[in-house]
Write a structure and sequence with these properties.
The structure holds two protein chains of two kinds. By secondary structure, chain A is mainly alpha-helical. Chain A has one helix and two strands. Chain A is rod-shaped, with a radius of gyration of 31 Å. Chain B is of the alpha+beta class. In chain B, a hairpin with a 2-residue loop joins strand 6 and strand 7. In chain B, helix 1 packs antiparallel against helix 6. The chains are: A mainly alpha, B alpha+beta. Chains A and B meet through strand 1 and strand 2 of A and strand 2, helix 3, helix 6, strand 6 and strand 8 of B. Strand 1 of chain A pairs antiparallel with strand 9 of chain B.
Chain lengths: ~80, ~325
């Protein structure tokens, strides 16, 4: 009788662990799906925000990838005020 | 140092000169078509001199909420961002101040007429400030308060250059440079040596005007100056860059400032703000890491953040 109790308790423990494990996996999967949805939504927003200047979504004036390089002679175009 | 077979087109737009360079000349006609459509749309949206433009309707709305197109909302958003990023130095609500100093019609007409409508300089106009502009992007509504009158001249041309360059590079797959009155945007693969740009006071002065030649490979380059777009009012020379603090043409220690940035609209925002900030512009540009070339009234030059130093005359030859 005592042995049956022990078996029952062990089975109950195993069942509890399985349930917790299943719940953890489901919660994790739901988190991954939600993250993906949020990433898609913000990605879409960012794509819209960069329409036009390409820096329009930025909260600062954006520096160039590299500064102008020195050159000699005439330019192909002129940058001056108009 | 050879840049082979670049297609070039030059035409008039917004009362100034536009230049289109494409690295694949076969795409020049397509590129011009794209630019024509976009520039016409920008003119319809935000010209201060067209009574049928969205900007004119908003200015005439007397503070009423006005519906706007996505394009106008984009342009207004760019202007408000420029104001925010410069602490209000580049302010789009200077429309009435420009009218007060005689800039009340297209500049080509103003030059041809010789005399502006406003003959006597009035007391300086108070600038209502960019916080009196409301834009609801979602519902596409805009509203001006406190008598604000918009002028998007400080950002619209540069924004349009960015927009055209981006569209042409995407649709044509070609490297492209778009210059709208000296506001330059490039996109797509650049030529091997980059795009060669002569930086000078006046964009119309020609490719060998006094100044400096540099190359750029991406982003934008813009120049602001108090020496161009000037006219006389009651015997006094005035120019078009308004200081929001005074409501009149700015008194700056710089006659010309050129800035390179990740986009033309950012470059133009910084170059205009630098003129207005005067001596304070130098540490501001350095702190921001923005490559710039600043020319004083006496012609002496300062550079920041990796902008190349002017060559000595012997090197130029």
């Amino acid at each position: 009788m005592r042995r049956d109790d022990v078996r029952f308790a062990a089975a109950a423990r195993d069942d509890g662990i399985r349930r917790i494990s299943r719940f953890t996996w489901r919660a994790g999967a739901a988190g991954v799906v939600c993250s993906a949805l949020i990433a898609v939504a913000f990605g879409h927003h960012a794509a819209h925000a960069t329409r036009g200047g390409g820096t329009s979504g930025s909260h600062a004036i954006v520096v160039p990838n590299q500064p102008p390089a020195p050159a000699h002679g005439a330019g192909q175009v002129t940058s001056g005020a108009s | 140092m050879t840049i082979l077979s670049v297609g070039t087109d030059t035409f008039s737009v917004f009362g100034t000169t536009a230049t289109l360079l494409v690295s694949d000349p076969d795409w020049l006609e397509t590129a011009r078509g794209i630019a024509d459509v976009e520039l016409a749309a920008v003119d319809r949206a935000c010209s201060r001199f067209r009574p049928d433009s969205e900007l004119s309707r908003l200015n005439a709305a007397d503070g009423a909420v006005t519906s706007v197109t996505d394009l106008f909302a984009d342009l207004l958003e760019a202007a408000l961002r420029a104001a925010r990023l410069t602490g209000g130095d580049v302010d789009p609500t200077c429309g009435q101040a420009l009218v007060e100093i005689g800039y009340d019609r297209d500049f080509a007409v103003l030059q041809a007429a010789g005399e502006p409508a406003q003959q006597r300089p009035r007391a300086k106009t108070r600038i209502p400030g960019w916080r009196n502009v409301r834009l609801d992007r979602k519902r596409r509504l805009a509203q001006l308060s406190d008598g604000a009158q918009l002028d998007l001249g400080a950002t619209a041309k540069a924004w349009a250059a960015d927009r055209c360059a981006e569209l042409i590079a995407t649709q044509a797959g070609s490297g492209v440079l778009v210059s709208l009155g000296g506001d330059i945007a490039v996109a797509g693969p650049p030529p091997a040596d980059g795009w060669r740009v002569r930086v000078t006071d006046d964009h119309a002065a020609g490719p060998q005007a006094p100044g400096q030649t540099v190359t750029i490979r991406s982003g934008g380059l813009a120049t602001s100056s108090t020496t161009v777009r000037t006219w006389a009012v009651a015997g006094r020379r005035v120019h078009h860059i308004i200081d929001p603090a005074t409501g009149g043409p700015v008194q700056s220690c710089w006659r010309t400032v050129s800035v390179a940035a990740a986009s033309c609209v950012d470059a133009n925002t910084a170059s205009t703000a630098a003129i207005i900030r005067s001596a304070a512009a130098l540490p501001w540009l350095r702190d921001a890491g923005l490559p710039a070339r600043l020319v004083r009234e006496d012609g002496s030059v300062e550079t920041t953040a990796g902008w190349p130093r002017d060559p000595v005359p012997a090197e130029e030859a």
